[in-house]
Design brief:
heterodimer; A: 275 residues; alpha+beta; Glutamine Phosphoribosylpyrophosphate, subunit 1, domain 1; five-stranded antiparallel beta sheet; 8 helices; 39% helix; B: 232 residues; 6 helices
Chain lengths: 275, 232
């Protein structure tokens, strides 16, 4: 049934498709833009470390807050980790503008589906939807606006935390234990590889996440560290069967202090030994 | 050559209205009422097909009559709200604009189409005490011909809306806590079946717009919770 002047031609349950079909002016027509502008890559804020790993109750996702434009700081307190609904989260890496937009669209997409259909998508369905969004961004990625998110959540059917990573073509890969991406992702992953264990408590997981991000910030200029003067802390979300919980500043600060103290102790104990 | 019959516009409209009323009258009623901490939406509904749904953060929908028709209206409403919230901000999605759009669409069908919609709908918006100017609850009722009205305290749609309305009128008190509101709603719905039968909790569809919730304020009550409220 169609109502004149109210509602359009689209009758499905995807918000992204609804925009595409009934409101094309709200979507960026990358193909047309590419044809007009030749192939000169666009400069946009970049740089990031985001990570996700499983712990005893589910899955934890964390990300730094820095956005850079070349060697310049574009913003010190960007949010890169978002709850997409009650039991799933996205962490974004890549060009800030399109990445934040993708996270926002993903959130609306899941809410829209849930409202139209009367029940939420399965976690697999959500991950698949996100991979389609990443694939749709491919023309922009070829212009330099790469978006490669991490997706994680608690699967209420299988009663476990799950993690996916994506590549620019929309390839979707489920990870067994942990994953990190962004310019500092490799450095964070080194820490996760050594310290991660799937029966870690929430507070242990928080400390591992913070020290992995610290290690990435130490090695990578595109990743922001913890700024206790400006009170800028990484975003950390945990997701268990009871839903998503955001780690508060105080928790992150104490995890940070704990990790700094253990590093300092380690140096003290081994002073002179290596020299 | 056959001579086309002349039927006066008054007659056409009357016939359509009667047809729509009959269709709506066959179904059960739905109640929306304000309670202390938000808005309660209730319907007698033994099936798993919902008559009440979430539209947006603070907006809910209730429909009676022909399921396929009001469910289509609900979906169009969700699309309208999500697109508007995406293009502007979440706080720009308001019940009044949506109710107006419903009124236009339903009025249009009533005048243009052969068959009018056999539905009545409610658009309810819970106030947000944090947002200056958005503190108050609003309840709109849109009828099959597109006529729209706003209501305070409570609103009933469906076959026996007048009778249930006067029942509520005599018993409703502003600022009722949730438990009392649910009991009052059930009593009114039982009234619709002329007190012949009691409505068991599993045959009730109950949803809330809770003022205190952050973000999406809509929540569907599970039967367990409903049992507790009715027993308490």
């Amino acid at each position: 049934m169609r109502f004149s002047g109210f509602g359009g031609a689209y009758e499905g349950s995807s918000f992204a498709e609804l925009l595409e079909i009934d409101h094309p002016q709200m979507r960026v027509a990358w193909r047309a833009l590419l044809q007009q502008s030749g192939a000169a890559p666009i400069a946009a804020p970049h740089g990031t470390t985001v990570l996700a790993f499983k712990y005893a109750d589910g899955v934890i996702v964390a990300g730094d807050r820095l956005a850079t434009e070349g060697y310049r700081v574009a913003s010190r307190d960007v949010q890169k980790v978002y709850a997409t609904d009650g039991h799933s989260m996205i962490a974004i890496a890549g060009a800030a503008g399109p990445a934040i937009e993708m996270a926002r669209l993903m959130r609306i997409e899941l809410e829209h589906y849930e409202k139209i259909e009367g029940e939420a998508l399965e976690l697999d369905g959500k991950a698949n939807k996100l991979s389609q969004m990443v694939r749709a961004n491919l023309p922009a990625a070829m212009q330099g606006l790469v978006v490669v998110p991490l997706f994680a959540g608690y699967d209420l059917r299988r009663r476990q935390g799950r993690i996916w990573k994506f590549d620019v073509t929309g390839g979707r890969y489920e990870e067994a234990d942990f994953e990190a991406t962004g310019s500092g992702g490799l450095y964070a992953k080194e820490v996760l590889k050594q310290r991660h264990h799937s029966d870690a408590s929430r507070s242990d997981a928080l400390e591992i996440a913070v020290s992995a991000l610290q290690n990435a910030a130490d090695e990578d200029r595109g990743t922001g560290g913890i700024d206790t003067v400006r009170r800028i802390f990484p975003t950390v979300l945990t997701c268990s069967s009871s839903g998503i919980e955001s780690a508060v500043e105080r928790e992150i600060e104490s995890a940070y202090q704990h990790s700094v103290a253990s590093r300092a102790n380690h140096r003290l104990e081994h002073r002179g030994a290596g020299a | 050559m056959s001579i086309p019959f002349y039927v006066s516009p008054e007659q056409v409209m009357q016939d359509k209205a009667e047809y729509a009323r009959k269709g709506i009258g066959r179904g059960k009623s739905s109640i929306t009422l304000e309670y202390r901490d938000g808005i309660l939406l209730m319907a007698e509904n033994p099936s798993s097909l919902s008559k009440i749904g979430e539209i947006y953060d603070r907006i809910a929908f209730a429909g009676v009559g022909k399921f396929s028709e009001f469910d289509q209206l609900r979906k169009v409403g969700v699309r309208y709200a999500d697109v508007k919230g995406y293009a502007y901000s979440r706080d720009d999605v308001r019940a009044r604009a949506l109710a107006n759009a419903y009124s236009q669409a339903m009025g249009d069908v009533f005048t243009r189409e052969m068959k009018p919609l056999e539905v009545e709908v409610i658009v309810a918006e819970v106030g947000d005490p944090e947002l200056a100017g958005h503190e108050h609850n609003t309840i709109y009722r849109i009828q099959f011909d597109g006529s729209i009205s706003d209501h305070e305290n409570f609103c009933v749609i469906g076959g026996q809306s007048d009778e249930l309305g006067s029942f509520l009128q005599s018993r409703y008190q502003p600022g009722t806590p949730l438990g009392e509101a649910v009991k009052l709603g059930r009593a009114a719905l039982e009234r619709a079946s002329n007190g012949r039968s009691s409505v068991p909790p599993q045959n009730l569809e109950v949803c809330l717009l809770e003022k205190a919730r952050i973000g999406r304020k809509f929540r569907r009550l599970a039967t367990d919770e409903l049992n507790q409220l009715l027993a308490g």
